[in-house]
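Sharing in case it's useful to others searching the archive later.

Someone asked me privately for the predicted structure of MFS transporter, so I'm posting the question and my answer publicly. Question first, with the sequence:
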Amino acid sequence: MTAAQPAPSGSTPTAEGTGRFTWRFVTPVLVGPVLNPINTSMIAVALVPISHDLHVATSVVVWLVAGLYLASAIAQPTMGKLADVFGPKRVYLVGLVVVLVAGILPNIWHDFSAVLIARILIGIGTSAAYPSSMALIRDQSTRLDRKTPPALLSGISIASQTTAAVGPVLGGVLIEFFGWQSIFLVNIPLAAIALVTAIMWVPADKTRPARTGPKPTLRDIDPVGIVLFAGALASLLVFLLDLKLSLLWLVGLSAVLVAILLWWSLRSRHPFIDIRMLRRNGALSRTYLRMLLIYFGAYTMMYGFSQWVQGSAGYSADQAGFIQLPTAVLAALTSIMIAKNRRLRLPLVLSGAIPFVGGIVLVFLTGASPLWILLLVAAIFGVPQGLASVSNQQALYRQAPGDQLGTASGLSRTAVYLGSILSSAAIGLAFPHAPTDSGLHGLGIAVAIVVGLAALLALVDPALRDGAKSERVGDGLKAE
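And my answer, the predicted C-alpha coordinates:
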Protein backbone atom coordinates (compact mmCIF):
# COMPACT_ATOMS: atom_id res chain seq x y z
CA MET A 1 0.00 0.00 0.00
CA THR A 2 1.11 3.57 -0.45
CA ALA A 3 1.76 5.19 2.89
CA ALA A 4 0.18 8.51 3.61
CA GLN A 5 2.45 11.42 4.45
CA PRO A 6 3.20 11.89 8.12
CA ALA A 7 0.72 13.98 9.98
CA PRO A 8 1.90 17.27 11.43
CA SER A 9 3.52 17.06 14.84
CA GLY A 10 1.01 17.18 17.64
CA SER A 11 -1.94 16.25 15.44
CA THR A 12 -4.50 13.80 16.76
CA PRO A 13 -6.81 11.46 14.86
CA THR A 14 -10.23 12.85 14.16
CA ALA A 15 -13.50 11.44 12.95
CA GLU A 16 -13.26 13.54 9.79
CA GLY A 17 -10.31 11.66 8.28
CA THR A 18 -10.96 10.10 4.89
CA GLY A 19 -8.24 7.40 4.97
CA ARG A 20 -9.02 3.72 5.34
CA PHE A 21 -7.43 0.85 7.24
CA THR A 22 -6.98 -1.56 4.31
CA TRP A 23 -6.92 -5.33 4.63
CA ARG A 24 -3.29 -5.26 3.54
CA PHE A 25 -2.31 -3.23 6.58
CA VAL A 26 -4.58 -5.14 8.93
CA THR A 27 -3.39 -8.65 7.93
CA PRO A 28 0.18 -8.54 9.32
CA VAL A 29 -0.96 -6.44 12.29
CA LEU A 30 -3.35 -9.20 13.37
CA VAL A 31 -1.39 -12.35 12.41
CA GLY A 32 1.76 -11.68 14.44
CA PRO A 33 0.09 -11.13 17.83
CA VAL A 34 -1.52 -14.59 17.59
CA LEU A 35 1.86 -16.26 18.08
CA ASN A 36 2.45 -15.40 21.74
CA PRO A 37 -0.87 -16.52 23.26
CA ILE A 38 -1.11 -19.81 21.35
CA ASN A 39 2.46 -20.69 22.32
CA THR A 40 1.60 -19.84 25.91
CA SER A 41 -1.31 -22.27 26.00
CA MET A 42 -0.40 -25.05 23.53
CA ILE A 43 2.24 -26.31 25.95
CA ALA A 44 -0.46 -27.10 28.54
CA VAL A 45 -1.21 -30.44 26.85
CA ALA A 46 2.38 -31.09 25.68
CA LEU A 47 4.22 -31.26 29.00
CA VAL A 48 3.50 -34.94 29.63
CA PRO A 49 4.48 -36.13 26.10
CA ILE A 50 7.70 -34.06 26.20
CA SER A 51 8.55 -35.38 29.66
CA HIS A 52 8.13 -38.98 28.52
CA ASP A 53 9.93 -38.61 25.19
CA LEU A 54 12.95 -36.70 26.51
CA HIS A 55 13.04 -38.54 29.88
CA VAL A 56 12.76 -35.35 31.89
CA ALA A 57 11.12 -35.11 35.31
CA THR A 58 7.91 -33.15 35.58
CA SER A 59 9.60 -30.76 38.04
CA VAL A 60 12.05 -29.89 35.26
CA VAL A 61 9.73 -29.85 32.26
CA VAL A 62 7.60 -27.16 33.95
CA TRP A 63 10.38 -24.72 33.05
CA LEU A 64 9.12 -24.87 29.49
CA VAL A 65 6.15 -22.94 30.81
CA ALA A 66 8.13 -20.74 33.18
CA GLY A 67 10.81 -19.95 30.59
CA LEU A 68 8.30 -18.47 28.16
CA TYR A 69 6.48 -16.67 30.99
CA LEU A 70 9.69 -15.02 32.18
CA ALA A 71 10.95 -14.19 28.70
CA SER A 72 7.61 -12.72 27.65
CA ALA A 73 7.03 -10.76 30.87
CA ILE A 74 10.40 -9.05 30.43
CA ALA A 75 10.45 -8.82 26.65
CA GLN A 76 6.94 -7.39 26.12
CA PRO A 77 7.64 -3.95 27.64
CA THR A 78 11.23 -4.07 26.37
CA MET A 79 10.07 -4.63 22.80
CA GLY A 80 7.43 -1.94 23.30
CA LYS A 81 10.12 0.50 24.38
CA LEU A 82 12.26 -0.43 21.38
CA ALA A 83 9.25 0.07 19.09
CA ASP A 84 8.56 3.50 20.57
CA VAL A 85 12.19 4.57 20.15
CA PHE A 86 13.40 2.93 16.94
CA GLY A 87 10.20 2.18 15.06
CA PRO A 88 7.61 -0.61 15.40
CA LYS A 89 8.08 -2.14 11.94
CA ARG A 90 11.80 -2.80 12.50
CA VAL A 91 11.17 -4.38 15.89
CA TYR A 92 8.26 -6.45 14.55
CA LEU A 93 10.32 -7.92 11.69
CA VAL A 94 13.27 -8.83 13.90
CA GLY A 95 10.93 -10.57 16.35
CA LEU A 96 9.37 -12.65 13.57
CA VAL A 97 12.81 -13.81 12.38
CA VAL A 98 13.60 -14.97 15.95
CA VAL A 99 10.35 -16.96 15.99
CA LEU A 100 11.24 -18.68 12.72
CA VAL A 101 14.58 -19.81 14.15
CA ALA A 102 12.93 -21.03 17.36
CA GLY A 103 10.35 -23.06 15.43
CA ILE A 104 13.07 -25.03 13.69
CA LEU A 105 15.45 -25.61 16.64
CA PRO A 106 13.73 -28.52 18.51
CA ASN A 107 13.32 -30.40 15.24
CA ILE A 108 17.06 -30.45 14.46
CA TRP A 109 18.38 -30.70 18.04
CA HIS A 110 16.50 -33.43 19.92
CA ASP A 111 17.32 -32.47 23.49
CA PHE A 112 15.54 -30.79 26.38
CA SER A 113 18.03 -27.92 26.32
CA ALA A 114 17.05 -27.16 22.74
CA VAL A 115 13.37 -27.21 23.61
CA LEU A 116 13.90 -24.83 26.54
CA ILE A 117 16.03 -22.46 24.43
CA ALA A 118 13.37 -22.54 21.72
CA ARG A 119 10.65 -21.64 24.23
CA ILE A 120 12.68 -18.70 25.54
CA LEU A 121 13.38 -17.49 21.98
CA ILE A 122 9.69 -17.83 21.14
CA GLY A 123 8.86 -15.76 24.21
CA ILE A 124 11.28 -13.02 23.13
CA GLY A 125 10.38 -13.07 19.43
CA THR A 126 6.61 -13.18 19.83
CA SER A 127 6.77 -10.39 22.40
CA ALA A 128 7.62 -7.95 19.63
CA ALA A 129 4.31 -8.46 17.85
CA TYR A 130 1.66 -7.03 20.18
CA PRO A 131 3.31 -3.77 21.31
CA SER A 132 4.61 -3.17 17.78
CA SER A 133 1.16 -3.75 16.31
CA MET A 134 -0.39 -1.32 18.78
CA ALA A 135 2.17 1.34 17.84
CA LEU A 136 1.64 0.62 14.12
CA ILE A 137 -2.11 1.05 14.50
CA ARG A 138 -1.77 4.37 16.28
CA ASP A 139 0.76 5.65 13.71
CA GLN A 140 -1.54 4.64 10.88
CA SER A 141 -4.49 6.31 12.58
CA THR A 142 -2.51 9.55 12.72
CA ARG A 143 -1.37 9.21 9.10
CA LEU A 144 -4.96 8.71 7.95
CA ASP A 145 -6.25 11.46 10.25
CA ARG A 146 -9.04 9.29 11.61
CA LYS A 147 -9.98 7.50 14.81
CA THR A 148 -8.95 3.88 15.14
CA PRO A 149 -11.94 1.63 14.37
CA PRO A 150 -13.14 -0.16 17.52
CA ALA A 151 -13.44 -3.36 15.49
CA LEU A 152 -9.69 -3.23 14.76
CA LEU A 153 -8.86 -2.85 18.44
CA SER A 154 -11.20 -5.76 19.17
CA GLY A 155 -9.47 -7.74 16.44
CA ILE A 156 -6.05 -7.26 17.98
CA SER A 157 -7.40 -8.16 21.41
CA ILE A 158 -8.78 -11.40 19.96
CA ALA A 159 -5.45 -12.08 18.25
CA SER A 160 -3.27 -11.26 21.25
CA GLN A 161 -5.34 -12.66 24.11
CA THR A 162 -8.51 -14.58 23.19
CA THR A 163 -6.59 -16.97 20.92
CA ALA A 164 -4.89 -18.36 24.03
CA ALA A 165 -8.11 -20.33 24.55
CA VAL A 166 -7.49 -22.09 21.22
CA GLY A 167 -4.02 -23.26 22.26
CA PRO A 168 -4.92 -26.44 24.19
CA VAL A 169 -7.26 -27.58 21.41
CA LEU A 170 -4.71 -26.89 18.66
CA GLY A 171 -1.94 -28.44 20.72
CA GLY A 172 -3.98 -31.59 21.33
CA VAL A 173 -4.67 -32.05 17.61
CA LEU A 174 -1.05 -31.42 16.59
CA ILE A 175 0.34 -33.79 19.21
CA GLU A 176 -2.13 -36.55 18.33
CA PHE A 177 -1.28 -36.54 14.61
CA PHE A 178 2.25 -35.12 14.33
CA GLY A 179 3.94 -35.40 17.74
CA TRP A 180 4.91 -32.73 20.25
CA GLN A 181 7.55 -31.20 17.93
CA SER A 182 4.70 -29.90 15.77
CA ILE A 183 3.75 -27.28 18.39
CA PHE A 184 7.06 -25.60 17.49
CA LEU A 185 6.82 -26.16 13.73
CA VAL A 186 3.38 -24.53 13.57
CA ASN A 187 5.08 -21.20 14.30
CA ILE A 188 6.96 -21.26 11.00
CA PRO A 189 4.07 -20.72 8.54
CA LEU A 190 2.38 -18.18 10.83
CA ALA A 191 5.58 -16.18 11.35
CA ALA A 192 6.41 -16.39 7.64
CA ILE A 193 3.00 -15.02 6.65
CA ALA A 194 3.32 -12.15 9.13
CA LEU A 195 6.90 -11.43 8.01
CA VAL A 196 6.19 -11.31 4.27
CA THR A 197 2.98 -9.31 4.56
CA ALA A 198 4.57 -6.84 7.00
CA ILE A 199 7.48 -6.24 4.64
CA MET A 200 5.11 -5.69 1.71
CA TRP A 201 2.20 -3.82 3.24
CA VAL A 202 3.16 -2.05 6.47
CA PRO A 203 4.43 1.54 5.97
CA ALA A 204 8.11 2.07 6.67
CA ASP A 205 9.16 3.52 10.01
CA LYS A 206 10.53 6.61 8.24
CA THR A 207 6.93 7.60 7.44
CA ARG A 208 5.94 7.64 11.14
CA PRO A 209 4.23 10.83 12.31
CA ALA A 210 6.80 13.35 13.54
CA ARG A 211 7.51 13.27 17.26
CA THR A 212 8.64 16.17 19.40
CA GLY A 213 11.91 16.26 21.29
CA PRO A 214 15.44 15.12 20.43
CA LYS A 215 16.23 12.16 18.22
CA PRO A 216 15.97 8.86 20.19
CA THR A 217 19.23 7.24 21.30
CA LEU A 218 20.24 3.98 22.93
CA ARG A 219 20.03 5.68 26.35
CA ASP A 220 16.26 6.00 25.85
CA ILE A 221 15.98 2.22 26.20
CA ASP A 222 17.08 2.41 29.88
CA PRO A 223 19.12 -0.84 30.06
CA VAL A 224 19.59 -0.38 33.83
CA GLY A 225 15.82 -0.36 34.33
CA ILE A 226 15.42 -3.44 32.15
CA VAL A 227 18.07 -5.38 34.13
CA LEU A 228 16.51 -4.41 37.48
CA PHE A 229 13.04 -5.37 36.25
CA ALA A 230 14.29 -8.69 34.87
CA GLY A 231 16.18 -9.53 38.06
CA ALA A 232 13.20 -8.77 40.30
CA LEU A 233 10.83 -10.82 38.16
CA ALA A 234 13.22 -13.76 37.74
CA SER A 235 13.86 -13.96 41.50
CA LEU A 236 10.15 -13.97 42.26
CA LEU A 237 9.42 -16.57 39.57
CA VAL A 238 12.10 -19.01 40.78
CA PHE A 239 10.68 -18.83 44.32
CA LEU A 240 7.06 -19.21 43.23
CA LEU A 241 7.83 -22.28 41.11
CA ASP A 242 9.67 -24.02 43.95
CA LEU A 243 8.10 -22.80 47.18
CA LYS A 244 10.67 -23.64 49.87
CA LEU A 245 11.73 -21.80 53.01
CA SER A 246 15.34 -22.16 51.87
CA LEU A 247 14.51 -19.99 48.85
CA LEU A 248 12.70 -17.30 50.80
CA TRP A 249 15.73 -15.04 50.36
CA LEU A 250 14.72 -14.69 46.71
CA VAL A 251 11.60 -12.80 47.80
CA GLY A 252 13.80 -10.39 49.72
CA LEU A 253 16.07 -10.01 46.69
CA SER A 254 13.07 -9.32 44.48
CA ALA A 255 11.78 -6.69 46.92
CA VAL A 256 15.17 -4.97 47.04
CA LEU A 257 15.43 -4.92 43.24
CA VAL A 258 11.90 -3.49 42.98
CA ALA A 259 12.81 -0.74 45.45
CA ILE A 260 15.95 0.11 43.46
CA LEU A 261 13.89 0.05 40.25
CA LEU A 262 11.41 2.54 41.71
CA TRP A 263 14.23 4.79 42.87
CA TRP A 264 15.94 4.60 39.51
CA SER A 265 12.74 5.15 37.52
CA LEU A 266 11.88 8.30 39.47
CA ARG A 267 15.30 9.77 38.71
CA SER A 268 15.80 8.58 35.14
CA ARG A 269 15.03 10.94 32.27
CA HIS A 270 13.71 8.10 30.11
CA PRO A 271 12.73 5.29 32.51
CA PHE A 272 11.93 1.81 31.27
CA ILE A 273 8.83 1.84 33.48
CA ASP A 274 7.52 5.38 33.85
CA ILE A 275 6.45 5.35 37.51
CA ARG A 276 5.50 9.02 37.40
CA MET A 277 3.10 8.42 34.53
CA LEU A 278 1.58 5.36 36.23
CA ARG A 279 1.16 7.33 39.45
CA ARG A 280 -0.68 10.11 37.62
CA ASN A 281 -2.61 7.76 35.35
CA GLY A 282 -4.61 5.78 37.90
CA ALA A 283 -6.98 4.52 35.22
CA LEU A 284 -4.16 2.73 33.36
CA SER A 285 -2.70 1.31 36.58
CA ARG A 286 -6.09 -0.11 37.53
CA THR A 287 -6.42 -1.65 34.07
CA TYR A 288 -3.11 -3.46 34.62
CA LEU A 289 -4.31 -4.72 38.01
CA ARG A 290 -7.60 -5.99 36.55
CA MET A 291 -5.71 -7.86 33.84
CA LEU A 292 -3.45 -9.52 36.41
CA LEU A 293 -6.45 -10.68 38.47
CA ILE A 294 -8.57 -11.85 35.53
CA TYR A 295 -5.77 -13.80 33.87
CA PHE A 296 -4.83 -15.44 37.14
CA GLY A 297 -8.24 -17.06 36.91
CA ALA A 298 -7.95 -17.81 33.19
CA TYR A 299 -4.52 -19.47 33.42
CA THR A 300 -5.41 -21.37 36.59
CA MET A 301 -8.34 -22.83 34.70
CA MET A 302 -6.29 -23.51 31.56
CA TYR A 303 -3.36 -25.26 33.26
CA GLY A 304 -4.80 -26.48 36.55
CA PHE A 305 -8.00 -27.85 35.04
CA SER A 306 -6.08 -29.41 32.13
CA GLN A 307 -3.70 -31.22 34.50
CA TRP A 308 -6.58 -32.37 36.69
CA VAL A 309 -8.53 -33.69 33.68
CA GLN A 310 -5.52 -35.81 32.68
CA GLY A 311 -4.30 -36.79 36.14
CA SER A 312 -7.50 -37.30 38.14
CA ALA A 313 -10.31 -37.65 35.61
CA GLY A 314 -8.22 -39.98 33.41
CA TYR A 315 -8.42 -38.30 29.98
CA SER A 316 -5.57 -38.25 27.42
CA ALA A 317 -3.72 -35.11 26.28
CA ASP A 318 -5.74 -34.71 23.08
CA GLN A 319 -9.02 -35.36 24.95
CA ALA A 320 -8.04 -32.76 27.55
CA GLY A 321 -7.52 -30.28 24.73
CA PHE A 322 -10.95 -30.98 23.25
CA ILE A 323 -12.62 -30.64 26.65
CA GLN A 324 -11.48 -27.02 26.60
CA LEU A 325 -12.96 -26.47 23.14
CA PRO A 326 -16.05 -24.69 24.58
CA THR A 327 -13.70 -22.16 26.20
CA ALA A 328 -12.11 -21.36 22.84
CA VAL A 329 -15.38 -21.21 20.91
CA LEU A 330 -17.25 -19.03 23.40
CA ALA A 331 -14.25 -16.74 23.94
CA ALA A 332 -14.05 -16.12 20.19
CA LEU A 333 -17.81 -15.66 19.75
CA THR A 334 -18.02 -13.27 22.70
CA SER A 335 -15.10 -11.22 21.37
CA ILE A 336 -16.81 -10.88 17.99
CA MET A 337 -20.18 -10.02 19.52
CA ILE A 338 -18.79 -7.10 21.54
CA ALA A 339 -16.21 -6.00 18.96
CA LYS A 340 -17.87 -2.62 18.42
CA ASN A 341 -18.97 -2.08 22.01
CA ARG A 342 -17.55 1.06 23.60
CA ARG A 343 -19.07 0.74 27.05
CA LEU A 344 -16.55 -0.81 29.38
CA ARG A 345 -17.97 -1.11 32.89
CA LEU A 346 -20.53 -3.91 32.40
CA PRO A 347 -18.29 -6.19 30.27
CA LEU A 348 -15.42 -5.81 32.74
CA VAL A 349 -17.65 -6.49 35.76
CA LEU A 350 -19.01 -9.61 34.04
CA SER A 351 -15.48 -10.73 33.12
CA GLY A 352 -14.90 -11.18 36.85
CA ALA A 353 -18.39 -12.17 37.97
CA ILE A 354 -18.83 -15.07 35.51
CA PRO A 355 -15.56 -16.88 36.36
CA PHE A 356 -16.43 -16.31 40.02
CA VAL A 357 -19.34 -18.68 39.39
CA GLY A 358 -16.98 -21.01 37.53
CA GLY A 359 -14.60 -21.09 40.47
CA ILE A 360 -17.44 -22.11 42.77
CA VAL A 361 -18.42 -24.91 40.36
CA LEU A 362 -14.83 -26.24 40.41
CA VAL A 363 -15.21 -26.84 44.15
CA PHE A 364 -17.86 -29.51 43.47
CA LEU A 365 -16.07 -31.47 40.71
CA THR A 366 -14.65 -34.95 41.26
CA GLY A 367 -12.77 -37.42 39.08
CA ALA A 368 -16.07 -39.20 38.53
CA SER A 369 -17.91 -36.10 37.25
CA PRO A 370 -19.59 -36.75 33.87
CA LEU A 371 -18.12 -35.31 30.69
CA TRP A 372 -20.96 -32.87 30.14
CA ILE A 373 -20.20 -31.20 33.49
CA LEU A 374 -16.55 -30.76 32.48
CA LEU A 375 -17.61 -29.22 29.16
CA LEU A 376 -20.00 -26.90 31.01
CA VAL A 377 -17.20 -25.68 33.29
CA ALA A 378 -14.99 -25.02 30.27
CA ALA A 379 -17.84 -23.07 28.67
CA ILE A 380 -18.32 -20.90 31.77
CA PHE A 381 -14.72 -19.69 31.50
CA GLY A 382 -14.96 -18.93 27.77
CA VAL A 383 -17.32 -15.94 27.86
CA PRO A 384 -15.31 -13.87 30.38
CA GLN A 385 -12.11 -14.35 28.37
CA GLY A 386 -13.77 -12.72 25.37
CA LEU A 387 -15.23 -9.92 27.50
CA ALA A 388 -11.94 -9.21 29.27
CA SER A 389 -9.69 -9.26 26.21
CA VAL A 390 -11.77 -6.85 24.13
CA SER A 391 -12.78 -4.47 26.93
CA ASN A 392 -9.35 -4.22 28.55
CA GLN A 393 -7.90 -3.60 25.09
CA GLN A 394 -10.27 -0.68 24.61
CA ALA A 395 -9.42 0.66 28.07
CA LEU A 396 -5.68 0.40 27.43
CA TYR A 397 -5.86 2.24 24.11
CA ARG A 398 -7.83 5.10 25.67
CA GLN A 399 -5.76 5.41 28.81
CA ALA A 400 -2.15 4.95 27.64
CA PRO A 401 -0.13 8.06 26.67
CA GLY A 402 0.11 8.19 22.88
CA ASP A 403 3.89 8.57 22.79
CA GLN A 404 4.33 5.54 25.09
CA LEU A 405 1.70 3.22 23.61
CA GLY A 406 4.20 0.52 22.67
CA THR A 407 5.68 0.40 26.17
CA ALA A 408 2.25 0.62 27.82
CA SER A 409 0.97 -2.22 25.63
CA GLY A 410 3.97 -4.34 26.53
CA LEU A 411 3.41 -3.68 30.24
CA SER A 412 -0.19 -4.83 29.87
CA ARG A 413 1.09 -8.19 28.68
CA THR A 414 3.53 -8.24 31.59
CA ALA A 415 0.52 -7.85 33.89
CA VAL A 416 -1.06 -10.86 32.18
CA TYR A 417 2.11 -12.89 32.68
CA LEU A 418 2.36 -11.89 36.32
CA GLY A 419 -1.13 -13.34 36.67
CA SER A 420 0.01 -16.52 34.97
CA ILE A 421 3.13 -16.74 37.18
CA LEU A 422 1.00 -16.42 40.32
CA SER A 423 -1.31 -19.03 38.80
CA SER A 424 1.63 -21.42 38.40
CA ALA A 425 2.48 -20.96 42.07
CA ALA A 426 -1.12 -21.66 43.09
CA ILE A 427 -1.22 -24.81 40.95
CA GLY A 428 2.07 -25.96 42.46
CA LEU A 429 0.62 -25.56 45.95
CA ALA A 430 -2.61 -27.32 44.98
CA PHE A 431 -0.91 -30.21 43.14
CA PRO A 432 2.41 -30.77 44.97
CA HIS A 433 2.76 -34.35 43.72
CA ALA A 434 -0.16 -35.09 41.40
CA PRO A 435 -3.52 -33.53 40.50
CA THR A 436 -6.22 -34.36 43.04
CA ASP A 437 -9.86 -33.47 43.59
CA SER A 438 -9.06 -31.61 46.81
CA GLY A 439 -6.36 -29.64 45.03
CA LEU A 440 -8.80 -28.62 42.32
CA HIS A 441 -11.28 -27.52 44.97
CA GLY A 442 -8.61 -25.29 46.50
CA LEU A 443 -7.90 -23.77 43.09
CA GLY A 444 -11.61 -23.13 42.62
CA ILE A 445 -11.75 -21.14 45.85
CA ALA A 446 -8.63 -19.17 44.87
CA VAL A 447 -10.09 -18.37 41.44
CA ALA A 448 -13.40 -17.22 42.93
CA ILE A 449 -11.68 -14.85 45.37
CA VAL A 450 -9.28 -13.32 42.85
CA VAL A 451 -11.71 -12.78 39.96
CA GLY A 452 -14.31 -11.55 42.43
CA LEU A 453 -11.86 -8.78 43.36
CA ALA A 454 -11.47 -7.98 39.65
CA ALA A 455 -15.23 -7.61 39.27
CA LEU A 456 -15.40 -5.32 42.30
CA LEU A 457 -12.50 -3.21 40.98
CA ALA A 458 -14.30 -2.72 37.66
CA LEU A 459 -17.56 -1.87 39.41
CA VAL A 460 -16.07 1.02 41.40
CA ASP A 461 -13.57 2.35 38.80
CA PRO A 462 -14.61 5.92 37.86
CA ALA A 463 -12.63 5.76 34.61
CA LEU A 464 -15.06 3.15 33.27
CA ARG A 465 -18.10 5.41 33.41
CA ASP A 466 -20.11 5.46 30.18
CA GLY A 467 -19.47 9.17 29.65
CA ALA A 468 -15.78 8.38 29.06
CA LYS A 469 -16.40 5.82 26.36
CA SER A 470 -14.94 7.57 23.33
CA GLU A 471 -12.03 9.83 24.25
CA ARG A 472 -8.40 8.83 24.66
CA VAL A 473 -7.71 10.00 28.20
CA GLY A 474 -4.01 9.15 28.09
CA ASP A 475 -2.90 11.61 25.43
CA GLY A 476 -2.51 14.38 27.94
CA LEU A 477 -0.23 12.32 30.16
CA LYS A 478 3.15 12.66 28.52
CA ALA A 479 6.37 11.54 30.14
CA GLU A 480 8.13 14.18 32.14
